[in-house]
Every structure is written in C-alpha cells, then in structure tokens.
Amino acid sequence: MRRGLLAAAGIFLALAGVALSAGGAYAYFWDRAHSDVIAPGVRIAGVEVGGMRAAEAREVLHAKFAALERPVRLVSGPHVFLVDPRGAGLRVDLTRMVDLAVRKSKDGGLLRRTWHALWGEPVRVTIPLQAAFSDSSLVNYAHNIARVVDEPAKNADVKATASALKPVGAREGVAVQRDALARELAAALLRFDGPRTLTIPTRTLHPRWTVADLPKRYPSFILIDREHYTLRLFRHLKLAKTYPIAVGRAGLETPAGLYHINERQVNPSWHVPLSAWAGDLAGRIIPPGPSDPIKARWLGFHNGAGIHGTAETWSLGHSASHGCIRMAIADVEQLYPLVPMHTPIYVG
Question: Could you tell me the residue range of the domain that residue 165 belongs to?
Fold first, then answer.
C-alpha cells in the first residue's frame, strides 16, 4: 500500500514538473516573441503606449509630436514674430524614449513580466520627454526680438522757436526681458496642446524727466529772434526779460540753431578772428578799453559767436554785427548773472 502511494506521488510530481517545464518554456518563448512590446501602464511624455510594440509607439508619438513642429507665435503690441522650432534647434529623440520604455517594461525578470502580461497589471512608468534645444539659438532669438521691440524712454523736453518754448511730454519705454523670453520660449516650443502663442515678457522704462520737472531742468533759457531783433530770457520756462539786440549782418549772419553757453567773462578782451573783414587786426587780442568793441560782459555759445555789450547802441534793432549778438551795456550786465554755464540758447 505504502509503496503504491509513493509511486503515485512520484508520478504526480513528475507530471507537475513536466507541466511547469512546459509552462516555463511557453513563458520564455512568449516573452521572446514580445520582446519589443511595452508593458501596460507605461507612458511617454504623457502619452499612453502600454501594449504597443516599439514601432507602433514610434508612429503614435510621431503623430503626437507633430504639434511641436508648428511655429511659436510671439506677440508684443504691434510686433509679431514666428519662431520655427527647427531654427531654435529643437530635437526630439523618439527612438531613445521608446527604447527606454521597452527597457523599463522588462524590469523585474521573466516571472514579473509574465504576471503583468497575464493579469494586465499596469507597471505605472512614465518616460519624460527627451528633447534638446540650442541654447545659443534661443539667446539669439531673444536678442534679435529685443532689437525690434526695445524702445527707450523719452524724457519730456521743450521745443524752442524764436519767440516761445513749448513743453513736449515724456513717453515711457519698453525693454524685453531677454532671459525670461528665452525660458518661456523653450517652454512654449514643448507645448503640445492649445495655441502656441506667447506674449513677450517686457518691463516698462520710466523717463527721467516729466513735464512737471521741466521748470527745474531749465532754470534759464535764451531765445534769439533775429527777425525782430529781440532776446528773450525765460526763467523756469516763464518769460522773465526781453531785450533789444543787434545780430549779424548779411554774409556774417548769427548762426541759427540750438546751442549752450560755453564761456562767460567779465570785461573780456577781444580775440580778433582770422577773417578778411578784420583787416590788419586779424589774429590780435585787444584788451578791455576804448578799442575793444566787446563791452562789459561776454557769453560765448558757438565758434566765436557770443552775446556782449556794445557802445554802438545805434546798431540795436539792426543786422549790424559780424555774427555776435549785441546788447546795451546795462542790459548785458543785468542778463549776465541770470545765465549760468550750459544755459541753452536757441537762435531762430
């Protein structure tokens, strides 16, 4: 009896061994036949690829990633730019991602793989997007866009005419935040869904001077009206004094334009210019006195031209000088302390 039981047990174990061997062999050959199949639950860059063979997964991902080939639209006010992902150096490595998904599917050995295959238990593995940019390309995009979009702030200023000063308002500027643009552009280039549009990050540039600051900026301002032989002195943009003057005669006109006082002297000497009209005096220095036509004060502003006093008061109201602006001695003495260095003078 006992011998019979032992024989039966031996037969059972033998049959079980054969079954296990057959099952193991089947599992082995099944696993070999599915060597490129991705396990259930595996995702690549958010795309479910479980149960797919490697080639099928590549096709699915290629269709999904086709969205990354669309240009990114950058907008700032009236400016619109299109960035080609290829021009930005975008490279997506589909093959590496799929190969990594297949390798992750094989982790844990044959028994674990067979278990997942039989029962459909997901492995819950996510393969991140394998993409690379050309950092230099993104930096160049940001730099070139900034060259178009950047606009410096404009200070408030005054527009001068021969007889009036008109304030001109300030304007804010804008500057592209280049580092932020490069980062946001990189993120936008990897965006699959939704519009591929990005508002260019900028910062506001504020002007240094506003209209309210102009009176402080211009404590003094001189206007020369050659047509009406008048000098107007503005103090903090308000008309303070008006004086009769003489200006340059025909052929030796007082130079028109905007200048600044660059020289101040009390009782100056006359440095005679090297000009034909000076005759024998050309190049000489005439000290203060009866022979010196430059009386009392000197306010130079351009290439030898300046404001000075004159004893020839008959010339006031006429084009009579050799290019300078003549004033009565009392008038130039009154004007002088009100006109510091760098005071603007507009000759119109």
Answer: 135-212
